[in-house]
Amino acid sequence: MSENCNQSCSSCSEDCAERKEQKVDFFEKPHEMSSIKKVIGIVSGKGGVGKSLVTSMLAVTMNRMGYHTAILDADITGPSIPKAFGIIEKAKGSEFGLFPVKTKTGIDIMSINLILENDTDPVLWRGPIIAGTVKQFWTDVIWSDIDFMFIDMPPGTGDVPLTVFQSIAVDGIIVVTSPQELVSMIVSKAVKMAEMMNIPIIGLVENMSYFKCPDNGKDYQIFGDSHIEEIADKHNLKVLAKLPIDSKVSAACDRGMIEFFEGNWLESIAQKLERMEEK
Ligand SMILES: Nc1ncnc2c1ncn2[C@@H]1O[C@H](COP(=O)(O)OP(=O)(O)OP(=O)(O)O)[C@@H](O)[C@H]1O
Questions:
Q1: Rounded distance, CA 42 to CA 45, Å?
Q2: Would you say 263 and 250 are in contact if contact means Cβ atoms under 8 Å apart?
Q3: Lower CB density within 10 Å: C or N end of the chain?
Q4: Which residues of the chain have pLDDT under 50?
Q5: Which pLDDT score is estimated for 11?
Q6: Alpha carbon 4 to chain centroid distance?
Q7: Residue 151 is inside which H or E element, if any?
Q8: Is 246 in the pocket of ligand 1 (CB under 6 A)?
Q9: Can you give the pLDDT at residue 4?
């Protein structure tokens, strides 16, 4: 016990043996007309590492396997999901709630850009408003018969992702990293956050891991040697996939054609998620 103990664990940050955790359930219920079997959060330590790409590709991969998938784009200040799927129409509502927009292959999507009149308008909102909007995507949107919902989380481990994890009953998270960032620190932060929130980490995905030269077929580690395996071992986690830098993938995102990407990099993750669904 700290020598300055004031007997109030809720206002103290000491990690002492006497600490009494207060278990408060802040979970929000989804819309009463919604049916969502599994919810997977995709997180990253910082922006631009490919979190939205991994979210999109996972939804596409599981959709190809016959599951009804959905994406809740919780990245309110940097929404990139509608563009990757080439969605230009806006979300519609009824007296009961708001409906997600369906992609060409039937994936249900909700994103701030499907509501804003002009999707180039910046979202200049403070944290609580942003977190409130994400909560509404969960409580006010009618998500029908969803087998797997993927949440593209806001980057980092700050206020907004914390509120989202407290409000939405997430079944597991996948951490996306890239070799050039401070992976060790970022994974440690994500692991701590998941522990605090009591959410299982399904594993790590290393994006932009290597480049496969089309001329000689060799793999080159453009951003230097990867340390993802050691880091995963340290935290008793699994490396679920390593994605190459592939200009066809970024071109597909830019043209709104991510549903038609070719590659099976995420199939092993999809099979792992499939086993979760059976439980
Ligand atoms: N493996 C890859 N190969 C080629 N381009 C990639 C790859 N991964 C991501 N990109 C491109 O990098 C850009 C950033 O990716 P993405 O939007 O998925 O990152 P993010 O982590 O979600 O970023 P933010 O948090 O800012 O939304 C996109 O243009 C995407 O197409």
A1: 11
A2: no
A3: C
A4: none
A5: 57
A6: 39
A7: strand 146-152
A8: yes
A9: 66
Q: How many alpha carbons lie under 13 Å from residue 257 in its C-beta half-sphere?
A: 9
Fold (topology level) of 33-278: Rossmann fold (3.40.50)
Contact 47, 155 (CB under 8 A): yes
CA of 89 to the centre of ligand 1 (A): 23
Ligand 1 pocket check for 178: Cβ under 6 Å: no
- Which ipTM value was assigned to this complex? 0.95
pLDDT score of 73: 94
* SS3 track for 59-109: HHHHHHCCCCEEEEECCCCCCCHHHHCCCCCCCCECCCCECCEECCCCCEE
Quick check: 135 and 165 in contact, CB under 8 A? no
- CA–centroid distance, 125 to ligand 1, in Å, is 23
Q: Model confidence over 86-134: pLDDT tens digits?
A: 999 999 999 999 999 999 999 999 999 998 877 767 666 777 788 888 8
